[in-house]
Structures are given as C-alpha cells and as structure tokens.
Amino acid sequence: MKNQQFVVIGLGRFGSSLALELMDLGYEVLGVDRNEEVVDEMSNFLTYAVVADATDEDMLRSLGIRNFDCGIVAIGDDIQMSILAAILLKEMGIRQVVAKAISVLHGRALEKLGVDRVIFPERDMGIRVAHQLVTPNLLDY
Ligand code: ATP
User: Which residues are paired to 73 by β-bridges?
Assistant: First the structure.
C-alpha cells in the first residue's frame, strides 16, 4: 500500500471510477455516500466505505477525515451539497481538496471556497479525446 490516503465523497459514476482507480494504483480509499445501496456495492472494493451525509460534520469528524491527504467531492448534480461538503473538507484542514463542478459558475464558487482543484469531467474528457483523435500516438493521460 502506498501511504497517501484519499477520501471520496459521492460514489456516483465519477466518484466510484476515481475511487476504484486509486485502489488499483495501490492507495487507501475511504468512500462516503449517503445511499446505502451504493455503499454496499462498493464496500468490497474500497479500503472502507461508509454510509454518511457529506454535510454531517460530526460524522465526518468521527471518520477522522482531517487526517486524509486528499479529499474529493464527487457530488455534481446537487450544487448545494457539493459546496457544503467542500467547505467542510477545507475547514477540517485536508491538505488537498478536489471537487467536481457541473457548470462554470459552480466551478467558480468552489474556487472561491479555496478548493485546490476543480474538475469539469465532461469538458476535460472532451479536450482529452480531441487530443487523442488528432495525435494517435499520444500516450493515454
Ligand atoms: P455521476 O455523474 O458521477 O454519476 P451525478 O452528478 O450524476 O454523478 P450526483 O447527484 O452528483 O450524481 O451523485 C453522485 C453520488 O453522490 C450519488 O451516489 C449520491 O448518492 C451521492 N451524494 C449526493 N449527495 C450526497 C450527500 N449530501 N452526502 C453523501 N453522498 C451524496
């Protein structure tokens, strides 16, 4: 196991794929989702998987979230939840907070909160695929 620890909040398509890839790369991953079914599905594949609401501050503290090296807010659709979760992760002092945005304005709000890296999955994937299409020998990145 590599010693960097990640917490992924929201195990939808983006969050689960990110969490599984980090596991494959040899890192420890705590997955958090408020949907019990989602957590049950993922629990065999992650280091830990917990049913919790990302805005439940006491719960996040009890999970020792502040000790993680990187927190990823992978909630998109519910902008309010995404923003509240990002604020809590920042306040808890996680060194690097990454969050997914679904719109430019959502991204700007996350940046204003001090989120270290904002990701726009669809936009970023579009750019990546365009590069791969015109540069066939480009290594996957
Ligand atoms: P994706 O495209 O990655 O599937 P999405 O944007 O379609 O994501 P979202 O509504 O963002 O879907 O939800 C992603 C995951 O986050 C879901 O599994 C959902 O249960 C979880 N989630 C949403 N809000 C919270 C919350 N407040 N606390 C914990 N988990 C949450």
Answer: 9, 99
Among protein residues, the one whose CA lies closest to atom 30 of ligand 1: 33
Q: How far apart are CA 23 and CA 114, in angstroms?
A: 27
User: Nearest Cα to 121, choosing from 135, 141, 103?
Assistant: 103
- Read off the pLDDT of residues 94-127 as tens digits, 9 standing for 90 and up: 999 999 999 999 999 999 999 999 999 999 999 9
Divide the 141 residues of the chain into consecutive groups of 10 and give the mean pLDDT of each group.
90 97 97 98 97 95 94 95 96 95 96 96 91 78 56
Q: Where are the beta strands (DSSP E) in the chain?
A: 5-9, 28-33, 48-51, 70-73, 96-100, 117-119
Beta bridge partners of 96: 70
User: Alpha-carbon distance 39 to 28, whole Å?
Assistant: 16
- Using the atom order of ligand 1, give the atom closest to the CA of residue 52: 29
* Residue to substitute in 41, 75, 79, 106 for testing ligand 1 pocket (most ligand atoms within 8 angstroms of CB): 75
